[in-house]
Design a protein that fits this description.
With about 220 residues, the chain is an alpha+beta fold. Helix content is about 15%, strand content about 30%. It has 3 helices and 9 strands; from the N terminus they run ααββββββββαβ. The chain has a 3-stranded mixed beta sheet, covered by helices on one side. A hairpin with a 3-residue loop joins strand 4 and strand 5.
Length: about 220
């Protein structure tokens, strides 16, 4: 069981966005004998075999086709609530520092995002040799943070304060000199030219690693 948990933590560590999750899951399914299906193709399914299909690089459905003596169904599903980076995200604040404009994606507990090292991962759409393609990208370093205000600047924080996503939850990316560098940072991490990036689907992710803990290492 402990090896399974360690494998889970390792999978999470290597899957900083939904696009990375799907690609990593796809590789694991293929390694374990699953067959990949395409939505535009005819499916000739056989009893006792396992299959999966992906859509848009952001979702995956895997299933095992049972034989006639099966007793029931086991269904597992998951989602990935996070913050999505908006187009043209940089926001200069009084020319002293730079924030990024984000929006909520899925359901989450906003308070858990404060004061943690964050970074950005997802995919970019690029033009390469006249062809349009998508490419995964991960800025694999501590890049930004969503800072809490000092309590004397927000006295209601411990009294059920309702956070404003467009005011309280914007990540601090850098000082004033960081303006106009975000897409350069993305391009550098992806190993492409900034002018070749046509669009992006980028998300924040928490840099703190998963752990096994508890008196008897019974929790994840």
């Amino acid at each position: 069981m402990k090896n399974n948990v360690k494998n889970l933590i390792e999978f999470i560590d290597h899957s900083p966005s939904c696009f990375h999750v799907i690609e990593n899951a796809r590789k694991q399914f293929l390694e374990h004998g699953f067959m990949e299906l395409k939505e535009k193709e005819y499916w000739d399914l056989e009893e006792g075999k396992s299959y999966f299909v992906t859509r848009n690089g952001s979702s995956i459905i895997a299933f095992h086709l049972p034989k006639k003596d099966f007793q029931g169904f086991h269904i597992v599903a998951s989602d990935s609530p996070t913050y999505r980076i908006k187009e043209q995200p940089e926001m200069s604040v009084e020319k002293h520092y730079t924030k990024l404009n984000i929006e909520r994606y899925g359901g989450m507990i906003p308070e858990t995002w404060f004061d943690r090292p964050l970074s950005v991962a997802g995919r970019i759409i690029i033009e390469e040799n006249g062809q349009i393609k998508d490419q995964l990208v991960n800025i694999d370093r501590d890049l930004m943070i969503i800072p809490n205000l000092a309590i004397h600047m927000n006295r209601e924080v411990n009294d059920g304060y309702k956070y404003n996503a467009q005011k309280d939850m914007l990540p601090l990316y850098g000082d004033g000199a960081a303006k106009d560098t975000f897409m350069k940072t993305i391009a550098c991490a992806a190993g492409v030219n900034e002018e070749d990036i046509l669009a992006h689907d980028l998300f924040l992710y928490n840099r703190i690693k998963g752990t096994i803990w508890g008196a008897h290492e019974e929790f994840v």
